[in-house]
Design brief:
Layout (H helix, E strand, L loop, with lengths): L2 H14 L1 H23 L3 H13 L2 H9 L1 E2 L2 H20 L2 H4 L3 H27 L7 H30 L7 E3 L2 E3 L11 E3 L4 E5 L5 E5 L2 E3 L2 H28 L4 H6 L2 E2 L7
Antiparallel strand pairs: 1-8, 2-7, 3-4, 5-6
Helix pairs in contact: 1-2, 2-3, 2-5, 3-5, 5-7, 7-8, 7-9, 8-9
């Protein structure tokens, strides 16, 4: 997208919804301040995250222009706030560690939002084509599956970052009980049940010893399952709203605020 075209789009956004535009400007200023702080403290990983966020903030306008769509102001504001909460507050300011449930909240919202995106895409295809006449149940099912697919792909991304870049995106849980066939000395496939674990020790080849108090360290599987579960909850909630809206042909405030629509014009004045 050309710079001039993008500036005109921002001006139109300001005229149509001052609150969303104000949020956009405030969040961008906060990201820039965080970027400057990261540069001063030589935290270049956070600098890269800030640059990524500034780029992501441009995506809604880019998608609107590329696909000739209109993203509702409420939906756009939620996207901006979600990106800021996930990347700046979550990663840079470590809210994922400092605030219990922060990651769970974002994954739930993610499931809800991507169900809305999937719903909008298939609805636009269905409404704009003479060859398709999909039922409300089918549209809702596709939206649900779209959201869950995005959730699974994100977990693949987290796993890849942990494996290849020594990160810990799939957060650890301390558990007191494990069941494993690996502990069976006969290798017969017998499940060994180990209850009431109070501590475990990790010894490295370099001679370091790490003691985990309170149980055994689960390195990501429970976090992944929890993330997918809350993603499912968010997807189900929007799917119910979307299905009800289509089935009853009644206007829903939630659905109306999150439905992506085709533009009535292709050029921006």
């Amino acid at each position: 997208m050309k710079l001039g075209r993008y500036i005109r789009k921002l001006k139109r956004s300001y005229r149509e919804n001052k609150k969303t535009f104000a949020l956009y400007i405030i969040l961008r200023i906060m990201v820039v301040l965080t970027l400057i702080r990261s540069l001063v403290t030589h935290n270049y990983e956070s600098v890269a995250t800030c640059v990524l966020v500034l780029i992501l903030f441009l995506l809604p306008a880019f998608i609107e222009d590329l696909m000739d769509l209109t993203i509702p102001p409420v939906f756009e504001a939620i996207i901006f706030a979600f990106i800021f909460a996930a990347e700046i507050l979550g990663e840079v300011d470590h809210y994922y560690v400092k605030i219990p449930g922060w990651d769970t909240m974002l994954h739930t919202i993610n499931g809800f939002l991507f169900a809305a995106v999937g719903f909008s895409l298939i609805y636009l295809l269905n409404r704009g084509s003479k060859d398709f006449n999909l039922s409300p149940l089918y549209i809702t099912l596709v939206a649900f599956c779209f959201s869950m697919t995005i959730g699974v792909l994100w977990e693949f991304f987290e796993c890849a970052m942990d494996l290849f870049f020594n990160m810990d995106m799939q957060k650890d849980f301390i558990v007191q009980t494990i069941n494993s066939v690996t502990l069976d000395p006969q290798n017969s496939g017998t499940v060994i049940h180990v209850p009431d674990i109070i501590s475990t020790q990790i010894q490295t080849g370099a001679g370091k010893t790490y003691t985990i108090e309170g149980g055994y360290l689960d390195i990501g599987i429970l976090d992944t399952m929890k993330d997918l579960l809350v993603n499912l909850i968010g997807a189900v909630v929007f799917s119910i709203i979307g299905y009800t809206t289509l089935k009853t042909s009644k206007t829903s405030i939630v659905a109306d605020s999150l439905m992506i629509r085709p533009n009535d014009h292709s050029e921006i004045s």
